[in-house]
Design a protein that fits this description.
heterodimer; A: about 190 residues; mainly alpha; 2 domains; 8 helices; about 80% helix; about 0% strand; B: about 180 residues; 7 helices; globular
């Protein structure tokens, strides 16, 4: 049943590994995932993890959750994956809820703390915009072999997303469906035309 | 005491949101979360929504902790647990079965799908940033920080955590 040459780790080992991943994930879980699973425990190779990430991104759900589920066969099946998920989520969820209570109390009592929190969200807004611009810029520079018109079309799909959500107040799921369909058509046309 | 109606509303909306979480994280769905939980159901205010975003960013853990945090604000622990389970149940089930099938086959279509998804992610990320900026308290300081971090992070590639720390220090100093 288990395709890996190594025996599956025990449920306790899995729990400890994923509690560690959860608690050391600050600003993204990709780094801790790789560190614990590939470097420290050697349960999976670098290439396999990259493959699972690719697959996890194409399926619905948060990519960390999907990768954890996809690791199931390595962990002796579904129970191993569930233990891993619980290990990653339950402690961090409890900590985040406790922190949110403390943060709200502090923000109500101290104007500087409140301003600091608002500043963090303001920074996040800036980071999202710059992340989006980066993705679009990469689309432009990654495909020098693709005709100019197609590159412009890809950027236009991105720009249309902003127009739909911000300008026309279209709800995000609907905008997403429209944009993905358009984008798939572009990819399909690209393949058949080249 | 959390009413069954609130819990059902949370469960339904998180299930739908979870199915639209594709291409990595739930960040691009933040405008939709605000639309539903803040503007439509008034489970929380814009102020607490932005506060929770800051907490989710600062706390250790995966990038979807905003889900139980909103659930907790709406209906305490029951709300947090219902939200988290609702957000996980379908993606976990789909990935469990689909992953098994896909893994045995060529990864060609997942690669093509991811490529097709990139312009969508790009555009919706920008939109998400604009919505979060408008949900944040209006004022010169937050606006300046959004624009400043937005422009600087285009050229300086450091972890978002550092930008948030710098912004917190600047924001607190200006208050």
């Amino acid at each position: 049943m288990n395709a890996s040459p190594k025996p599956a780790p025990s449920l306790l080992q899995i729990a400890i590994a994923f509690v560690t991943i959860g608690l050391t994930s600050i600003g993204g879980a990709a780094g801790p995932f790789r560190h614990v699973l590939v470097v420290q425990r050697r349960w999976i190779s670098e290439g396999e993890l990259a493959e699972l990430y690719g697959l996890g991104q194409a399926l619905p759900g948060a990519v960390t959750v999907n990768v954890t589920v996809l690791l199931g066969p390595r962990f002796g099946g579904a129970l191993g994956s569930l233990v891993a998920l619980a290990g990653m989520i339950v402690p961090t969820m409890a900590i985040a809820i406790a922190l949110s209570g403390i943060a709200t109390t502090l923000a109500a009592a101290n104007a500087r703390f409140a301003a600091g929190m608002i500043a963090v969200t303001a920074a996040l807004a800036g980071i999202f915009v710059s992340n989006g611009l980066r993705v679009l810029a990469q689309l432009w520079s990654d495909a020098p072999d693709v005709k100019l018109a197609w590159r412009c079309t890809r950027i236009a799909i991105g720009a249309l997303g902003v127009v739909l959500v911000i300008g026309l107040h279209v709800i995000v799921p609907l905008a997403m469906i429209v944009l993905v369909v358009l984008s798939m058509l572009v990819e399909w046309r690209l393949r058949t035309s080249s | 005491m959390a009413s069954a109606h609130v819990l059902l509303t949370l469960a339904w909306h998180w299930i739908v949101l979870s199915l639209f979480t594709v291409g990595g994280g739930p960040s691009i769905l933040l405008p939709q979360m605000r639309q539903e939980f803040v503007l439509q159901y008034h489970f929380l205010t814009d102020r607490s929504f932005t506060e929770l975003l800051a907490v989710a960013q600062a706390a250790p853990g995966p990038n979807f902790l905003i889900v139980p945090l909103i659930g907790f604000r709406a209906a305490s622990w029951a709300g947090a647990i219902v939200s988290m389970v609702a957000f996980l149940i379908f993606p976990v089930t789909i990935t469990f079965f689909a992953g098994r099938l896909l893994h045995q086959h060529d990864n060609e279509w997942t690669a093509r799908f991811r490529r097709a998804f990139r312009p969508v992610t790009g555009g919706l990320w920008i939109a998400s940033g604009i919505v979060i900026a408008s949900a944040t308290d209006h004022g010169a300081a937050p606006l300046g920080i959004t624009i400043g971090v937005g422009v600087l992070s285009l050229f300086i590639d450091i972890s978002p955590m550092w930008w948030c720390l710098i912004a917190a220090a600047v924001g607190a100093a200006l208050a």
